[in-house]
Amino acid sequence: MRSRTDRYFEADRARIEVIPMIDIMMFLLVFFIMITIDTIAGSGIALDIPSSKTPQPLKNTQITIGVVKDGALYVKGKPITPEALDELLKAEKEKGKVEVVIAGDKEVPLQKLLDVMDVVRANDITNVGIAAGDAKRAAGVKPGK
Questions:
Q1: Span 94-110, average pLDDT
Q2: Is the CB of residue 107 less than 8 Å from the CB of residue 69?
Q3: Is there a contact between 104 and 113 (Cβ–Cβ < 8 Å)?
Q4: Residues 118, 120, 122, 125, Cα dihedral to 10°
Q5: Mean pLDDT, the chain, as a whole number?
Q6: Which residues contact 46 (CB under 8 A, 6 or more apart)?
Q7: Hey, CA dihedral for 110, 112, 114, 117, is it positive or negative?
Q8: pLDDT for position 143
Q9: What is residue 141's predicted lDDT score, i.e. its pLDDT?
Q10: Whether 41 contacts 7, CB under 8 Å
Q11: Which long-range contacts does 95-99 make (Cβ < 8 Å, 24+ apart)?
């Protein structure tokens, strides 16, 4: 009589191995969770942005400038000095119309945000937005109420 393990290793029928599929699905799940962690599009850093009662969806912009609590500037997840930001904005302006979003942490002093806006406006860029979260969502109110 044949044992149960002998039948397991026979190549009579094709089998679908479930364990490797579960591993791949877990990897994809973790990957997408890591991608969608609270980062502002384009800034590459996690910020606790202030909330607003009338936010508008953040569209894809050419440049998103992140300003963290200590006043450091970030573009595409990399730190940048105001001088380097000025050069970057000049280079982008030469290519054509430039749209900029400034995403500042809640605890960044207003003066620091204005300094960044001054650098942007000094390059004759007038299409500037400030990133804000939805106050209703922050308070736990469901959309539409």
A1: 86
A2: yes
A3: yes
A4: -130
A5: 77
A6: 37, 38, 39
A7: negative
A8: 46
A9: 47
A10: no
A11: 97/127, 98/62, 98/63, 98/123, 98/125, 98/127, 99/59, 99/61, 99/62, 99/63, 99/127, 99/129
The identity of residue 50, as a single letter, is P
Q: List the structure tokens of 86.
A: 């000025």
**Residues whose CB is less than 8 angstroms from the CB of residue 12 and which lie 6 or more positions away in sequence, other chains included:** none
Give the chain as a DSSP string.
---HHHHHH--SS----HHHHHHHHHHHHHHHHHHTSSB-TTT-SB----EESS-------SEEEEE-TT--EEETTEEE-HHHHHHHHHHHHHHS---EEEEE-TTS-HHHHHHHHHHHHHTT---EEE--EEHHHHTTPPTT-
Reference 69, options 28, 113, 118; nearest CA is 113
Neighbours of 137 (CB within 10 A): 12
Tell me what pLDDT residue 137 has.
55
The pLDDT value given to residue 50: 72
The structure tokens listed for 125 are: 């860029």
CA distance 70 to 107: 9
